[in-house]
Design goal:
Layout lengths: L26 H22 L17 H34 L7 H26 L13 H35 L2
Helix pairs in contact: 1-2, 1-3, 3-4
């Protein structure tokens, strides 16, 4: 990337000239988005609204039986554990980037990546769980859940587009600052 070499930003891990030479990492923002997007899905759609669970559209595990609800709750727990691991990985990636002396991201750079990661989560989860595997839908409590599934996918695409646009604006700001502080 242009503009990053020799930008005058002090860091505990700066090079011999006392400047940071690497742009911020995208990894932590994307991982935070994937993990937090999963938490929003699990907490809001699974627990608060109770529209679906991880395997609520699998006939062997109906949510109107105790045994079926137990399996669905267990599957939800594994899902939440996976989203927690993504947030943990994001924290480790952020600390690693900081220890490497990388330039700190501005809000739009980072939050744009978080939104992008959330959108990626929605699109991947929506395609795999809702359409390909058919283990649940956004609204398993309705007879025709396809429109809700499509809305979920469209919302995911909108998050990706708006998040990436916000991220790129933050990146341009960082590049301008790097060029003016040389």
């Amino acid at each position: 990337m242009r503009g990053w070499v020799r930008c005058a930003v002090p860091s505990s891990r700066a090079n011999a000239l006392g400047v940071v030479s690497q742009p911020p990492s995208k990894v932590s923002g994307l991982l935070y988005g994937l993990g937090l997007g999963g938490f929003v899905d699990g907490i809001v759609l699974h627990q608060i609204l109770q529209w679906h669970h991880m395997v609520s559209d699998v006939s062997r595990y109906p949510v109107n039986t105790i045994a079926g609800l137990e399996v669905n709750t267990l599957a939800d727990g594994f899902f939440h554990m996976a989203t927690w691991v993504l947030v943990l990985a994001a924290s480790i990636a952020a600390i690693t980037a900081w220890r490497q002396g990388r330039l700190a991201p501005n809000w739009s750079f980072h939050f744009g990546l978080v939104l992008t990661g959330w959108g990626i989560f929605n699109v991947v989860e929506g395609l795999i769980d809702h359409q390909i595997l058919g283990v649940h839908h956004v609204r398993d409590d309705l007879a025709g859940p396809l429109s809700w599934d499509m809305g979920f996918l469209i919302f995911g695409v909108l998050l990706i587009v708006s998040g990436w646009t916000l991220h790129k604006a933050g990146l341009r700001t960082l590049e301008r600052r790097a060029l003016t502080t040389r």
